Amino acid sequence: MLLLLPLLAARKPPLLQQLLRRSKHVSVAMAALHPATPKRQGLVLGVYATEKDEKAVQLTRAGDAFDHVVSGKLKELLSISGPPLKKGKTRIFHALHQNFSSVVVVGLGKKGAGVNEQENWDEDKENVRAAIAAGCRQVQDLEFPYVEVDPCGDPQAAAEGAFLGLYEYDEFKQKKKPAIEAHLHGSDGAEAWQKGLIYAEGQNLARILMEGPANHVTPTRFAAVIEEKLKSSGGNVTVHIRDQAWIEAQEMRSFLSVAKGSEEPPVFLEIHYHGSSDPQEHPLVFVGKGITFDSGGISIKPSSGMDAMRADMGGAATISSAIITAARLKIPINLIGLAPLCENLPSGKANKPGDVVRAKSGKTIQIDNTDAEGRLILADALHYAHSFNPRAIVDAATLTGAMDIALGSAATGVFTNSKQLWDQLYEASVVTGDRVWRMPLYEHYTKQVTDAPLADLNNLGKYRSGGACTAAAFLKEFVTAPHWAHLDIAGVMDNKDEVPYLRKGMAGRPTRTLVEFITQLSQDKKSV
After folding, report:
1. Is 375 a known active-site residue?
2. What pTM was estimated for this model as a whole?
3. What are 150-183's pLDDT values in tens digits?
4. pLDDT (tens digit, 9 = 90+) per residue, 337-350?
5. Rounded to whole angstroms, how far apart are CA atoms 382 and 393?
6. Which member of 137, 221, 375, 509 is catalytic?
7. Active-site annotation holder among 110, 301, 438, 462
8. Residue 254 reports pLDDT greater than 80
């Protein structure tokens, strides 16, 4: 795992210490081939795919420069050591240069591939991320403490690949992967490299929060982590950690009905980033589902796989991490993040199937399944979000297993009442490679949640099919804003082997897409 510097005193709980650490790998190797460079280090260089009838090896600009320094040995070895490198594959050469014990050459695929309209992403950027991640891991396996990284024509994507690819959650393991520092090879693109590093650290923060055991990442500790990280971001920020008394005063009874089943006190986290030069500019408001552990409540889940429900606060983790990242980047926009945080557990005080609660909006909800709790806590948070006269509202939640069934881990499902908002989210996802896909928000689904025998709404759709769509339709009943998007991130919650530059574990998606979305909205004041 990357070397980190603790920001808290030793008295803080172990996991909290890790969550509050900050990467120090921001330096750039300005003189990459200077003899004073440490010898126990690796170098990752890129090579492009060539046509079958082309015999010449096509290296990147940095690769060509290195090959010149070693008198053409790199191209010669690549030509005789096997077939041309395929996309994402690696080949290692040793003792080519005194400053680098090993050089890892990585396949970048076809040069200038551009945006793949079928895949809905920028293929050049994705190829760089995947290749650099593979190369850095090879160097880490050699147990070198340093690696220099070829920018491959896109320093930001290279940094994202390096720092996302090297991250692994090992807080509670005695045996850890060798620590390694990644640096940019050369000085070209240092600013873009730094931006990619910050993007990656944002997603990695969400990964740490989501992966952390539920007895360590409680609502209270989650809020403390975000407060410390946000205040250390260097931005103009305000943090409110609202307690149960405040929640009760706000009449967030739907939220409280879920929280009451646990001994852990609920928290309503409210964070503000004031980045615009105009303090009166309407804010973009994010809402994130913050169930720090979801047993299902009385409608209890099967025990197999229940441990993964420590990440059911992925919505809160990703929106909070995105705002922290925006603050670090000093993006000129006003942002607000709202996260209702609690556990969903069975007890004598917990919700029971058939119970009816009155939400903050005044609407009543019949709770036919206590495992459909995410929409209950979001209902109150969404209603509260309107009090800020928002430019737009975007919520993120690991809301439904139905979304995982529908899209798997390929993309986040987006339900929205705004074409402009969808266009911005889609364009952002093409850049980051963390894709989104628009889902239907038809009246067809609304009828299935408004036909309730005991209340205004039912937290369960009338029929089994279209579960992600009926959940979104339920949330829509608490939204009056003309620009609102609901992101169901259940399918992208974790990574097995689908995203090559993420190791197995909680994925922290779609943090980078949210950051890119924020960046684009800060530059476009008219569309939304």
Report:
1. yes
2. 0.93
3. 999 999 999 999 999 999 999 999 999 999 999 9
4. 999 999 999 999 99
5. 8
6. 375
7. 301
8. yes
